[in-house]
Amino acid sequence: MNGHEQIPRRCWAEIDLAALERNLKAIQAALPEHIRYIAIVKADAYGHGVHQTVARLMQAGIEMYGVANVAEAVTIREIGGNGWSILVLGATLPEEAGFLFEYDLTPTLSSIAEVEMLDKMAVERRTELKVHLKIDTGMGRLGIWHENAGELFEAMKAAKNLKLDGIYTHFAHAETDVEFTEVQRRRFMTAIAAVDWIDPSQLLIHADNSAGLRSFSKSSAYNAVRIGLLQFGITPYAKSLFAKVPTTPIFSFKTRVALVKSLPAGMEISYGRTCRLKRPSRVAILCAGYGDGIPRALSNKGFALVNGKRCPYLGRVTMDQTIIDVTDLPENEVSVGDEVCLIGSQGGGEIKIEQFARWAQTISWEILCSITKRVPRIYKTAIATG
Ligand SMILES: *Cc1c(COP(=O)(O)O)cnc(C)c1O
């Protein structure tokens, strides 16, 4: 152990890998058995840490992964599991394309130019490359516009060394707009049905992300799903709508009390003097700020848990420190070094990440992606490997 590892932590994230596995099993159990599961682990597995997360998903039997780009895909390939499929969800830049071949990665293609470029490279390398075609059914991001999909399939048919492995689309508003999601599903199926030289049952046909599952139809042509959020215990819509999949949070965010002191009423504290103390106050200074991932938008908003009790943030969230009001706590209940829970459960209290995100006027997954490098991820319930 080097010295650095012995220094006590000031701010850290705890990740419950057993809960990740339980969530995965719960989602799989809610889906028909033939549906293949593509675990989406982009952006460092939504900030949870890709190495530990993917290692656990691999132990749980997941064989297909989706990431944002070639660099993330290479990271997963290096974790292990040669032969497992890695789908690159983003567009591949020409300079990145060589790595698709070197690491056996599956790109997403949206244009004839991409089909032609990769086919030429595959021919030059005398090898075959598996690809997924993406159809834009209303998101307006990647994929060929569904009305023009025929052209992309023609180019694909003409390709000599590309192997069509899957076709997919992505929903724009699946968490709330079931009607528009149905429009997208119809456009997707119509585009596929128009292609006479493919057998969809031999391909991966997928559209559903976590939110899509809300309107997932068991009797459709889909045979795969792409799940990120839900496996991490985050429901992208009201829990009640997805009660049939009992997922639990796997992430908590913690820090410690650095100092406790009393301040007189009427003081205007913090940067910008944005918080006027209405009463003689006891404040605790926390060892974390926006340099760790507490959004600055939480300034004068929201609560942290001390001894299971909610204590409001006072003044601006600063880079390394944040002030909370502990006046209402009995004096013996807060002292230097005490653990403070920013997200998660403590002593009967809970701050859900969804709530934390609402205080910051953003979404839970942006919070996860904003927990910084300074914050060590501590893994609970890891399976020991020899
Ligand atoms: C991120 C992503 C997903 C996963 O979405 P969740 O809402 O996290 O389940 C699926 N498909 C694509 C194309 C994505 O970019």
Please provide a written account of the structure.
- One of its GO terms (biological process) is D-alanine biosynthetic process.
- Its EC number is 5.1.1.1.
- This protein is α/β, with parallel strands linked by helices and 386 residues long.
- It has two domains: 31-232, TIM Barrel, CATH 3.20.20.10; 251-380, Lyase, Ornithine Decarboxylase, Chain A, domain 1, CATH 2.40.37.
- The protein has helices at 3-6, 17-30, 42-46, 50-59, 70-79, 97-102, 112-124, 149-158, 178-193, 353-359, 364-370; strands at residues 11-16, 36-40, 64-67, 85-88, 106-109, 129-136, 144-145, 162-168, 204-206, 224-227, 251-263, 268-269, 275-276, 281-286, 303-306, 309-314, 322-325, 339-346, 349-351, 377-380.
- The strands form three sheets. Strands 2, 3, 4, 5, 6, 7, 8, 9 and 10 form a nine-stranded parallel beta sheet that branches. Strands 11-14-17-16-15-18 form a six-stranded antiparallel β-barrel.
- Strand 8 (162-168), helix 9 and strand 9 (204-206) form a beta-alpha-beta unit.
- Helix 2 (17-30) crosses helix 4 (50-59).
- The longest helix has 16 residues, at 178-193.
- The protein is elongated, with a radius of gyration of 24 Å.
- The mean pLDDT is 94.
- It binds pyridoxal-5'-phosphate.
- Residues 40, 42, 89, 170, 209-211, 226-230, 236 line the site of pyridoxal-5'-phosphate.
